[in-house]
Structures are given as C-alpha cells and as structure tokens.
Amino acid sequence: MKIAVTGKGGVGKTTFAATLARLYADEGREVLAADVDPDANLGLALGFSEEVLDSIVPVSRMRKLIEERTGANAENQFYKLNPKVSDIPDTYGKTCNGVKLLVLGTVETGGSGCVCPEHVMLKRIINNLVLHRDDVVIMDMEAGLEHLGRGTTENMDQFIVVIEPGARSVQTYKNVKRLAHDLGVEKVHVVANKVRDEEDEAFIRKKIPDEDLLGIIHYNSEIIDADRQGCSPYDFSKQAVDEIQLVKEKIDRVAGQPQKFERSIE
After folding, report:
1. N or C end of the chain, less CB within 10 A?
2. How far apart are CA 8 and CA 31, in angstroms?
C-alpha cells in the first residue's frame, strides 16, 4: 500500500495522513510516513515531541550525504543517477507510536546553481520506498502540484486528494487527477474534510463522482485543540479517528486488503 496524500494548503492533509498512518500501525503493519512538505509538520501530527523533531534534518538539506551518494560537489557537476538510498529510511527515520517518520523535505529552487543532485536523491528515495519496501508507505506531499510535475510520485498505488467544500479544492482534485493519469496512476480518490453541514456535504457529492469519494470528515474543533497543544489528533478526537477509520476501510476494500482493526478510545 503506497499512498500519496495531496491537496492545496490548509485543507488538513497532514492530519489525515498522520491518522491514517497510525491506524495502519495499530494493526501491527510496518508503516513508513514520509514528509515531503517543505513546511514539515507531519511529525507533530504523529505524536513526536518537539525536541525530537528539532533534531531532525530533512534529507534534502543533508549536503554531505547528497555529495557522498551522488558524487556531485562544487568541483564536480557530474553525478550518479542511481545513488544508493536503500539504507536511508532505516538510518535516518525515527519511530513514534509505531510509525517510522522520514523527513525528506523538498528542494529549494529559489537560489542559483544546479539542484539536480538533490532532485535525484529525493526521487530515488521515493522510488525505493514505493518499489522495494513492503511497508505501508504514506507520503504527506507538499501543497500544490509541483511534485506531480517533477514526476517524483509516479508508481504510487494511489493519490488521495484532501479537499474542503469549495470550488478551488475541487479544481485541485481535477488537476491532480489529470496529472496523475499522465504519470500512469489511475487511482485518484478524494477525502472531503472540514465539512460543516448538509449543504457542504451536498456540494461535495455533487462535485465529486461517487467512485472517487472515499469519505467525509466533519469540521472538528478537537483537531484545532490538538494542533494548538502540539499533540497528535489521533489521541485527541475519537470522532475524527472513527471517520478516518471508515475512509481506511474503503481504501482497503479498493486495494483488496484485509480488514482486521477494532479500536476504542477511553
């Protein structure tokens, strides 16, 4: 199961990705959550402490590692297209609540100079996660569509676009579906978040085909409280976890995975 969670900024994709990862971990599955967002906060949503997260350097900023693996440096602009990366998740990943977190970051393109070696490293790591590991892999992607243009997420089993009730979110879903098709990914599904009432739900169901809609997560002040306290929403809101559990069950049905999870929150 290799899932890329995407969507425009602020729709709640990190909350969804983290809760989904913890649900799979509670089944006893090996779960790797990859944070590919430059504004990396997946770790907090998984339940990591701020002290641990402050100690993590995104792989995209590990200049020495990138130079060692690709062979590129200030004096040498030639680099390997297939650097060794298979050890990176276990070497640099950190585990909390049964989920291994790997902070990949993204490549800064605002400055001068070639960033090709960094792109090669990130793409190779993602491909390794997708093709050569048996883990459940859940990627919290950067907001927007740039990652699709770079092709770093080809070979994923499916994209899940988190949207909120609004025309701009729906447009993002349509664009992701079109670009994913170009990458050969046919499974593009939607999770509607921050749904407030029946009018919001009717809007979602009118705009999103039934076969693409995985489920609905309602607006929830407990998620805001969890974020304010720097805690995992999984530990804060039974309602949100139950709604995402229903989404997970549909993901499993679509993928033909067994369902064997029962959970209660005191």
Report:
1. C
2. 24
Q: What is the pTM of this model?
A: 0.85
Distance of CA 164 to the CA centre of its chain: 17
Residue 153 binned pLDDT confidence (cut-offs 50, 70, 90): low
Of the candidates 45, 244, 24, 46, the residue with the CA atom closest to the CA atom of residue 136: 24
Cβ atoms of residues 258 and 252 within 8 Å: yes
What sign does the dihedral 237-105-3-125 (CA atoms) show? negative
Q: What is the CA radius of gyration of the chain?
A: 18
Sheet containing strand 94-96, strands side by side: 94-96, 99-103, 31-36, 136-141, 2-6, 158-163, 188-195, 213-218
Q: Which residues pair with 218 in a beta bridge?
A: 195
137 half-sphere exposure, CB direction, 13 A CA radius: 28
The predicted pLDDT at position 211 comes to 92
pLDDT digits (tens, 9 = 90+) for 215-245: 999 999 999 898 888 889 999 999 999 999 9
> Has residue 152 got a pLDDT over 80?
no
Residue 193 main-chain phi, psi, to 5 deg: -115, 160
3-state helix, strand, coil in the chain (%, to 5): 45, 15, 40
